[in-house]
Amino acid sequence: MKFIVPIQNLVIDEISKLGDVVLIPPLRDTNLVFEESVFNTIEMAEITKILGICNEDYMNTYCNYTTALFEYPFSDEEYHHNKPIQDFDFLDKLCYTVDRALDYLRLLYCQIGKMDTLPGIPGILDGYRFGLVINLSENTYRHILGNVYNIYVAPGIGLYSDPITINDINSSFYNQIFNKRTDEIYNNCRVALARINEAMYMNNINTSFIYLMSTLEMLASNDYLQFKKVKTSIISFVANNKVEYHEMCGKLRDISENIRTEIVHNGKNLYDLFASSDQVKSLLWYLTGVIVNYCESVINTGITNFTELEIEKERRIHLFS
After folding, report:
1. How far is the C-alpha of 274 from the C-alpha of 29, rounded, in Å?
2. Does the N terminus or the C terminus of the chain have fewer Cβ atoms within 10 A?
3. Residue 172 within any structural domain of the chain
């Protein structure tokens, strides 16, 4: 069945697609504008039909926001004989699907420490999470309700994304986010990219920092490694030459041995260790850049398991030694 989930604080200009998720801009009338290079005639007709089925509720509430339209497995039994607690859990899964599609936009436009440009958390409007499920075989729909989020706050004006970027489906970065690979290396990188986006919404900047550092550790190996081995594993896939390799290894060593030690073991705050908030944000952006560049490099190798990854890592470290 098809589902519609609203997204606060996200503005787009035309109907676009992120992987399998269709993004529909706020509608002021019933005229739909499609990017014909992205949608075929059948897809355009189906989207028009779906919005027609739930037109009354859509135009009363959902049309004021960008919405995500997508398909997800849902049985007739679940549709006709729903139980609130099951709807709550199911809506969380739906919104998680949309959230992972939004990773692409956040990684392009947003940064940790700048919450004013973040899109809203999918499904949450005015402290409540909800959406619509559309049964195309019966031409009917119903609401699907979720949990209450009274403490959710979305500061700033949110995110504006131009259609050229959204619809650049042939770009390397787009294909890294929306990839059909299911191997352990791709899945590991994809989780790491999602963790960057999760860190963007953390109100405590120290928590974001620790979360990013642990993300580096999970990328390096599927077993526990000391950070001195983590840094060489990561940087071997990021550095372009020997000088850059040793400089980046030194910087990550300093971040781990000095900054993280002060935060985790001595109870310090990042703002105690830096002269300005800009320096704190610069640190977080540096870690984000390392993670993104590592994932891009590793995904592009085509390696599918940690055994092959270990061999390639050793080869690269030897070149930089």
Report:
1. 51
2. C
3. no
